[in-house]
Design a protein that fits this description.
Elements: H1 10-19, E1 23-27, E2 33-37, E3 40-45, E4 64-68, H2 72-79, E5 86-87, E6 97-101, H3 110-124, H4 127-136
Antiparallel strand pairs: 1-2, 2-3, 3-4, 4-6, 5-6
């Protein structure tokens, strides 16, 4: 019998990212968490920036999380659905990443969030680390 995944929580981002192998968490310039594998960021909490803002108030979003993606097609698959919590900005044109506001993380199931974080890790890990992890975690 399949189990139903609960809604994702902000704490799941931290738990899942830090639970991947060879991960270090560093603090960004304003204390924002940055998760890295082999010195390469794969998930990070972004500081408020002028490219991500509320279209009504103009206020900069203070809760944006960036996730690396494997390819442009993966990025487009996540951001093209208008009901998806994932988005991008012109600042990230050509960059293999997607953004999501922390306040919308609950629109994802925990399983969906885990998949996005694992894919982000795989996109940034060395070939050997990725192959070792995939050997014990077959593709879904």
């Amino acid at each position: 019998m399949a189990t139903v995944s609960r809604r994702a929580r902000l704490a799941d981002v931290h738990e899942t990212a830090s639970g991947m192998p060879h991960v270090t968490r560093i603090d960004g310039p304003r204390g924002n968490p940055v998760y890295q594998v082999g010195g390469r960021s794969f998930v990070f909490f972004r500081n408020p920036r002028p490219d991500a803002f509320d279209p009504v108030t103009g206020e900069r979003y203070a809760d944006v999380i960036v996730f690396w993606v494997p390819s442009e097609s993966d990025k487009q698959a996540l951001v093209q659905d208008p009901d998806s919590p994932f988005f991008t900005t012109r600042h990230f044109d050509g960059h293999p990443s997607v953004l999501v506001r922390a306040c919308r993380i609950g629109e994802l199931s925990r399983a969906e969030l885990t998949e996005v974080i694992q894919d982000a890790w795989l996109a940034r890990a060395s070939r050997k680390r990725a192959a070792d992890w995939l050997a014990t975690h077959p593709p879904r």
